Amino acid sequence: MEFIEEWFIEQTLGEGAFGEVKLLVNKKTKDEVALKIINLQLHPDAADTVRKEVQIHKLLDHDNIIRFYGSRKEGPIEYIFLEYASGGELFDRIEPDCGMDANKAQNYFQQLINGVDYLHKLGIAHRDLKPENILLDGSDRIKISDFGFATVFRIRGRDRLLDKRCGTLPYVAPEVLKGNYKAPPADIWSCGIILVALLAGELPWDKPSNDCHEFMKWKTGDMCCLPWTKLDIKALSFVKRLLCPSAGRRITMDLIMAHPWLSKKSSGLGTKGGYGIQLAKKIASGLNLSGREDDSIIHLCLSQPEARKEDEVDCHFDQSSNDHHRRNPIFSFSQPAGERVDDFFIGSQLGSQAANTQSPPITRWVKRLTRFCVTTTLDKTIHEVTEILDDIGFQWKLGNSSGPCITVSTVDKRKNLLVFKAHVIEMGNRMVLLDFRLSRGDGLEFKRNFVRLRERLSKIEWKGPMTWVM
Ligand SMILES: Nc1ncnc2c1ncn2[C@@H]1O[C@H](COP(=O)(O)OP(=O)(O)OP(=O)(O)O)[C@@H](O)[C@H]1O
């Protein structure tokens, strides 16, 4: 569909709380642009957020931040033109419970820090840093996106305290839940949680508050448990400084940049697989294994945030104490564009170069890990999947959203609601694509269940190279 002269809407890239993101491709030059479309008539509460997002995003110009190309309003529809990140979300590179190779994690984390440091130097806080908001371009370069919660914290050279309680609970810093917090340490905390997700493939806690057992254990310095035992000693020592519960004692940007874990050449990062329980006991008993003064692992800050009422806070929240602006819980639900079958570009060998701007559409490829093909008919696939879901004890319902779609509802190990959808797409030649997307809940828990279902379907999973089947 032609959007403006010579620019065609090629596919839907995803869906956010307030609208859709489409890929625009120039017919002649093959240039690509991501187009965020927000219908303010449908989401009148988004107007302020979108205005602020545009105001802030247009100020930014950095390699590790999604470029802002412009915006346009037509009636109630707001269009935002952004750099297209063809590599998908960082979130999709994290293997549940495993994370990723430490060298890879270091590389991504370094880029993330470069981007966040740039923002902070401009006096801007992101306030919703998480792997779902960190995109990758075709060269595996980190691109920080989604400035919906961003704010200016430095005005005429003076830093102001923030008080809006916003972000995504597992990534949010403890002081944000209390109100009146400094912007940079809060973003740094979120980076620390992202690093844990990259290295361990799981999040350490639901929220950093006194009623959360895992967080309380961390505060007392007990690291003889997951995910900490999966981290090697250097990484753990670094994470300890990023996740210092006292904002005032948390590591600063300059010290992050100079930290041995980040400045070490890849070979010095230690083994992946963790320091193990024996070492954990030594750490917990106070032995400083790093030999560095500032790396003493037992010196966790013990200041405790006051208990607060958070009943109304959900997974992704925004609670303002002053402006009475409040968003509903938001869950990113990236919808497969079922309206056109060529919205699905799948492949396993194309690699990142496949996504470069020179590629013809057919090789343009979104690297999403939560999809695979099975070699059977559509009906049989639905039957097999739903039988497994019954066997596991998941609730499901079969619907139709541009093709059959199984919505699965369950609770995760922390008793939080988890809802995901499996779109079932016939590819021809007895090949069916199962495309799983998170609707609500913790992304890593979703992935854990995806892996579980995939294992159960391994007998019919297509193991060969994934090429486009017309
Ligand atoms: N510039 C982009 N390039 C490629 N894909 C993008 C781009 N921007 C967004 N997307 C995709 O579209 C999805 C929706 O993006 P959007 O910014 O609207 O919302 P979100 O970040 O998921 O959620 P929310 O605003 O609800 O927190 C993203 O999850 C991402 O997968």
From TrEMBL:
Residues 7-262 form the Protein kinase domain. ATP binds at residue 36. It catalyses: L-seryl-[protein] + ATP = O-phospho-L-seryl-[protein] + ADP + H(+); L-threonyl-[protein] + ATP = O-phospho-L-threonyl-[protein] + ADP + H(+). InterPro entries: Prot_kinase_dom, Protein_kinase_ATP_BS, Ser/Thr_kinase_AS. Keywords: ATP-binding, Cell cycle, DNA damage, Kinase, Nucleotide-binding, Nucleus, Serine/threonine-protein kinase, Transferase. PROSITE patterns: PROTEIN_KINASE_ATP, PROTEIN_KINASE_DOM, PROTEIN_KINASE_ST. It is found in: Nucleus. It is an enzyme of class 2 (transferase). Its main location: nucleus. GO terms for molecular function: ATP binding; protein serine/threonine kinase activity. Belongs to the protein kinase superfamily. CAMK Ser/Thr protein kinase family. NIM1 subfamily. PANTHER family: MAP/MICROTUBULE AFFINITY-REGULATING KINASE, SERINE_THREONINE-PROTEIN KINASE CHK1. This is non-specific serine/threonine protein kinase. It comes from Allacma fusca.
